[in-house]
């Protein structure tokens, strides 16, 4: 004899499966009866997602370009003349241990003069003929891990610990050094802010488009909904069909937009790689390729979750408002 609990469990699961099949069939039937509305809604939302992917690609490219530029914007620290070589080496080692620092290079005044003499030999002869000392200072070149680290490193060097080693007057007066870092950070924050607001606007517009499409379907088939309620159909069954429609709009649009984005990306990479000669632009293009190739499924996963929530929320809102209005009239 079979276990009655096992039988009840299978019976409940079977009922849920049949209910889900009927909900999907009912929603699909409504979509196919309004083919032009379904196609138009899908294409409009797909274009929105396509623009979103372009903005996302530009965001990745700009971040990579700014990071590349930031790595080239190093911090040049002049060492006081009376500081001993041993103290300078300790200073270099201490700066290297800073978590914001990526690289530290010490350039002695003799080494700097040797490099200078290769470019301007006449100046060196002038110094030798007039028995003048080497005017160049000892310099420590510091490269931060990113742009945001540069001003933190400058603030670190301005502390009392290095007041006897670092030429504080020169470090404080180098406004250009701090200004470059601030400009790069401001540009990065501006791009991220624009991307965030664009995502928010796209989400609102997508909700409104799907809401209106579902609303049109509901009012077109309102007599059928009334008949379904009269013959005993539960509210969850009626609601489920329209939830499927909203989910279908969102997922179909995502698939179409990803196809457009992929074709556009392949076309651009084939035609731009041979044309672009600027190193920064190539870095930006490579960052787009890296993200959409190596992190493709991660990007698709987040977008899939987002569009699913948008589709379900907008369709739920439309059918819920209709059912509440109908109950209030009754």
Concise overview:
It contains 12 helices and 3 strands; from the N terminus they run H-H-E-H-E-H-H-E-H-H-H-H-H-H-H.
Give the strand order of the largest sheet, numbering strands 1, 2, ... along the chain: 1-3-2
Given the C-alpha coordinates, what overall shape results?
elongated
Largest sheet report: 3 strands, antiparallel
Topology as a string of helices (H) and strands (E): HHEHEHHEHHHHHHH
Query: How many helices does DSSP assign?
Result: 12
**Number of spatially distinct domains:** 2
Category by helix and strand content: mainly alpha
The percent range for helix content is over 70%
Which percent band covers the strand fraction?
Answer: 5-15%
**Euclidean distance between termini CA atoms:** 50 Å
**Average pLDDT metric:** 77
Uncertain segments are: none
Number of strands: 3
Radius of gyration: 33 Å
Please name the defining characteristics of this protein:
about 325 residues; three-stranded antiparallel beta sheet
Describe it.
The chain has 330 residues and is mainly α. It folds into 2 domains: 198 residues, no CATH class; 87 residues, Alpha-Beta Plaits, CATH 3.30.70. The protein contains 12 helices and 3 strands, in the order ααβαβααβααααααα. The chain has a 3-stranded antiparallel β-sheet with strand order 1-3-2, sandwiched between helices. Helix 2 packs across helix 10, helix 8 crosses helix 10 and helix 8 packs across helix 12. It is elongated, with a radius of gyration of 33 Å. The two termini are 50 Å apart.
């Amino acid at each position: 004899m079979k276990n009655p609990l096992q039988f009840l469990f299978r019976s409940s699961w079977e009922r849920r499966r049949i209910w889900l099949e009927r909900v999907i069939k009912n929603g699909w039937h409504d979509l196919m009866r309004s083919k032009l509305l379904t196609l138009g809604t899908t294409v409009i939302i797909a274009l929105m997602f396509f623009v979103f992917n372009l903005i996302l690609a530009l965001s990745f490219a700009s971040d990579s370009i700014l990071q590349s530029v930031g790595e080239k914007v190093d911090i040049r620290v002049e060492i006081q003349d009376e500081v001993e070589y041993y103290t300078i080496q300790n200073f270099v080692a201490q700066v290297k241990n800073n978590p914001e620092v990526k690289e530290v290079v010490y350039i002695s005044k003799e080494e700097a003069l040797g490099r200078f003499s290769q470019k301007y030999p006449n100046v060196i002869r002038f110094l030798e003929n007039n028995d003048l000392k080497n005017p160049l200072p000892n310099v420590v070149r510091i490269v931060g891990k990113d742009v945001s680290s540069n001003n933190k490193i400058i603030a670190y060097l301005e502390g009392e610990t290095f007041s006897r080693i670092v030429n504080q007057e020169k470090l404080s007066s180098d406004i250009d050094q701090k200004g470059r870092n601030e400009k790069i950070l401001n540009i990065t924050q501006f791009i991220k802010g624009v991307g965030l607001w664009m995502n928010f606007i796209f989400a609102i517009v997508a909700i409104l488009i799907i809401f209106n499409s579902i609303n049109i379907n509901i009012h077109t088939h309102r007599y059928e909904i009334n008949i379904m309620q009269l013959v005993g159909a539960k509210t969850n069954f009626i609601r489920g069909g329209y939830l499927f429609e909203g989910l279908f709009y969102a997922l179909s649009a995502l698939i179409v937009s990803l196809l457009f984005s992929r074709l556009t990306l392949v076309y651009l990479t084939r035609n731009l790689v041979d044309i672009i000669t600027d190193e920064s632009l190539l870095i930006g293009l490579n960052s787009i390729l890296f993200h959409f190739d190596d992190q493709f499924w991660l990007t698709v996963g987040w977008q899939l979750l987002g569009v699913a929530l948008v589709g379900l929320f907008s369709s739920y809102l439309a059918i819920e408002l209709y059912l509440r209005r109908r109950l209030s009239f009754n």
